[in-house]
Amino acid sequence: MSDQISNTTVAQGAMQMFLEEYCAAGIQALLFDTDDEVMSLHIDMHELLEFNHELAMLLLESPSKFLPLFNIACLAAQRSLKQQTTVSDSICTVKEDAQVRVTHLPNHPTLQRTRIPGSEDVGRLLSISGTVIRTGLVKMMETHRVYSCTKCRGVFSVNAEVEQYNYIPKPVRCLVPGPDFCNSTAFVPADSAEDSQRCVDYQEIKIQEQVGRLTLGTIPRAIVVVLERDLVDKAKSGDSVTVTGVVTCRWRPVVAGERPDIAVVIRANSISVLSDQASQIAITEELREEFRAFWAARAGTPMRGRDEIVASMCPQVYGLFYIKLAVLLVLISGVARSDESGLRVRGEAHMLLVGDPGTAKSQFLKYAAKLVPRSVLTTGIGSTSAGLTVTAVKDGPEWQLEAGALVLADRGLCCIDEFGNIREAEKSTILEAMEQQSISVAKAGIVCKLNARCSVLAAMNPKGKYDVHSSLAVNTALSTPLLSRFDLVLVLLDTHDEQWDAHVSSFLLGSRDGEEAGLGSDGEQDVWEFDRLQAYLAFVKTAFQPETTPASEQVLTRYYQLQRQRDTLNAARTTIRLLESLIRLAQAHARLMFRNKVLLADAVIAVVLMESTMLSA
């Protein structure tokens, strides 16, 4: 059977049968699309394996040969289906340039990769997951050039060679098919009506390995992905994507005396953008039932259940219950709102930790970055404005945009350590990203807007010794617009308390001899495993969209009014953003408590956390 399938004609017939049986709806969408918006037909590799295992294996092993056959089979299937319909030609048209896109490769390490493929994978069809760090301009690529022989008057075409950067070599002799070869070397480019059909859209992007899936100390590698036709502009910088394509080599023309420049690239066949965090974490139905059973068993004492989850947050740090709770609420965040006019109120919460050295600020940042599947951890001392937002990079004769930390953390978390060491010019660049959740770029003739829908978790040391009698703006030397964008600003002071020091030292030494330090102790509580906590956070963030109740709204509104009427008004904190921050924190606590309603208790917790910020301010 495999020998028969390897025959081109037999394989093309089998492909047409598969398309007519499994993809009839997609072919109809191609035929009846009058705006040329649908120009590709997606096929599921699992269905192809079920239909004909030998054909699927040949497609995986020799995609350069069998993918063009699939395109021809798609054209034949369109014509066959059109003959069966009685609709006029103006409504039902055959798409000559329709492309077959292969998706959902089997979940096998050789087919679905998280690491960049090497030279041993050249010629294979595989899927790779990564983050887009650079997008090039959309260009026109000439797919073939038509020549006319001056001797036999025949016409033939020469295809562009992808391996040589789409270079079209000039033929050395006449290539007109037929019994008599004239072998002429005199030919000229033909003037035909198909000039406009020789070019297709073309774009190059660069994807990088996902940092969260790499081992410690491994530098993420990147690879160039070639997008053609309707795949261009499908992904932007910062998007998490899964690319299915053929691994090929590219090289420049060889120059005497210079080393050849050969690079491995992926010629994409299909691309899908993974915008949701939950899609990167496997949340099974068994896990969902486990979470529901956990809260059902603690229906009478829900706060104890919450304390168990909070105790599992950063277990290597002793105590600091409210800090752990605040970090969890920032990771979960609230619900984004959009009205009919297009105005969007962010749901992502931001938090700033200000504290003396040795108060576990960096530990919280590192643990939070591990918990969120899409996160970026950077330090302020080595970050520039371009490194945080977008860099303009010159690649050959063109300028391209390369995503920075805030863009790469889109729909995730951006942790910035040593926040106070960022230069003043760099701090102003993140103002738009924190509130409008986007970054406007006007560099090197490129004007665009990129998404930066991420939570910012920052940590910094105070300027000198923290003075409890001075305002937060004086202690941190941060501007009022920047401070007002943080939902929570918590201060960690290294107080010289003998009892606290005894508890911490006992915890670090592993003796557990000290008494319980109240609610913040992690000693005797059931600590969740890391994977379970990570899955829980991803699940509650997508499964619940909490709505406020009249009781909770009354508490939040009254607290906001009282803060505005205080004599010691702090301009950096008591803006309208204070009320939005309270709503976000209350919604995040409701999600943490596994419910869709913001109750009075959630509003009280939000007020307690905000009051600790106000006291420090």
Describe the fold and architecture:
This protein is α/β, with parallel strands linked by helices. Helix content is about 35%, strand content about 25%. The protein contains 20 helices and 25 strands. The protein has a 5-stranded mixed β-barrel. A 5-stranded parallel sheet has the order 16-19-22-15-23. A hairpin with a 5-residue loop joins strand 13 (about 335-340) and strand 14. Helix 3 packs across helix 6 and helix 5 (about 55-60) packs across helix 6. The longest helix is centred in the first third of the chain and has 21 residues, at about 65-85. It starts with a helix and ends with a helix. Mean pLDDT is about 80; it is low at about 510-525.
> What is the β-strand count?
25
User: How do the strands line up in the largest sheet?
Assistant: 4-9-10-12-11
Number of helices: 20
Helix content: 25-40%
Which word captures the global form? elongated
- The helix/strand class is alpha/beta
- Main sheet properties: 5 strands, mixed, barrel
Distance between the termini: 77 Å
Compute the CA-based radius of gyration.
Answer: 30 Å
Topology, pairings included?
Layout: H1 2-6, H2 8-22, H3 24-31, E1 40-44, H4 45-51, H5 53-61, H6 63-83, E2 99-103, E3 112-113, E4 125-135, E5 139-142, E6 144-149, E7 155-159, E8 187-189, E9 199-208, E10 222-228, E11 240-251, E12 262-274, H7 285-297, H8 302-311, H9 321-332, E13 337-338, E14 344-345, E15 351-355, H10 361-371, E16 375-379, H11 385-388, E17 390-395, E18 398-403, H12 405-408, E19 413-417, H13 424-435, E20 438-443, E21 446-451, E22 455-460, H14 472-476, H15 480-484, E23 488-492, H16 498-509, H17 530-543, E24 547-548, H18 550-565, H19 576-592, E25 597-598, H20 600-616
Parallel strand pairs: 1-2, 3-4, 10-12, 15-22, 15-23, 16-19, 19-22, 24-25
Antiparallel strand pairs: 4-9, 4-11, 4-18, 5-9, 6-7, 6-8, 9-10, 11-12, 13-14, 17-18, 20-21
